[in-house]
């Protein structure tokens, strides 16, 4: 047996009522009416993933059943590939986005080297059939799982025919001429192409974290105080440079400019994200913030001195405020939606 039933440790409100989150394999007496299941890594929870969730939710509702999403943490490539993979969204953000899609149950399977040895046959029999008692399965067009990725679409269809659960395969999704995929989104983020990234995600690309104490040069020396975040090793880092951003703190949204880089003007080599928040004057050290990246303004520049740097930041602020003004209605609606998810 690869697992037993899962212990619920979180319950979150979603559009259907509440989403249950299971994160380990301890025994419970949990059972689900007519389980409709989808499986995937769902990194970024992009528009293609959202299609899967919509299909699962619709099938569950039609049968008075339960929509279930199964994912893995850490991402399998972080365990199996040297150097891992840079994530579009961490596990917390992924859960929030899946919750917003209306899924009833999220199962986060701990992915380990030992679990990676599980064959597709055992996963289907022990987990999907014996534990979840699956009634329907929905997967993406390119999905495969199990040791050696033997659990491909043909395998799943044969398993469905043998054990009596229909398998629905959702076709690839395109935004214009671009295939919606996590791989493509990573490429766009690394290139600073925020508008194209948003088209594939269905929302703005977001970084988040706890505000750190930095060098405190922003306000005292340069005249533009900043809220600083540090990137984790697994984070996907956007192209170095300056961005127009939307900062979410508490129950409000603010405009701002964000610099991602290593402060070459000051001869440093530590990667940070420094955000100057407009019309804001609060002490938020140690507080969580979320930053939506709207538009790339310019690359990282090494200036000859503080005066040149301050003059350029002033120009960046002026340009950013114009962008925010032009998109004000759209941004207010987007931010209102994100605050409503909390």
Topology:
Blueprint: E1 8-14, E2 17-22, E3 35-39, H1 47-62, E4 66-73, H2 76-80, H3 91-100, E5 105-110, H4 120-129, E6 136-140, H5 153-163, E7 167-170, E8 174-175, E9 178-179, H6 182-190, H7 194-201, E10 205-210, H8 217-222, E11 227-229, E12 241-249, E13 252-261, E14 272-277, E15 288-299, H9 306-326, H10 328-341
Helix pairs in contact: 6-7
Radius of gyration: 22 Å
Average pLDDT, all residues: 88
Number of helices: 10
DSSP strand content = 25-35%
Can you tell me about this structure?
By secondary structure, this protein is an alpha/beta fold. 32% of the residues lie in helices and 27% in strands. It has ten helices and 15 strands. The strands form three sheets. It has a seven-stranded mixed beta sheet, sandwiched between helices. Strands 10-15-12-13-14-11 form a six-stranded antiparallel beta sheet. The protein has a two-stranded antiparallel ribbon with strand order 8-9. Helix 5 links the parallel strand 6 and strand 7. It is elongated and about 70 Å long. The two termini are 37 Å apart. The N terminus is likely disordered.
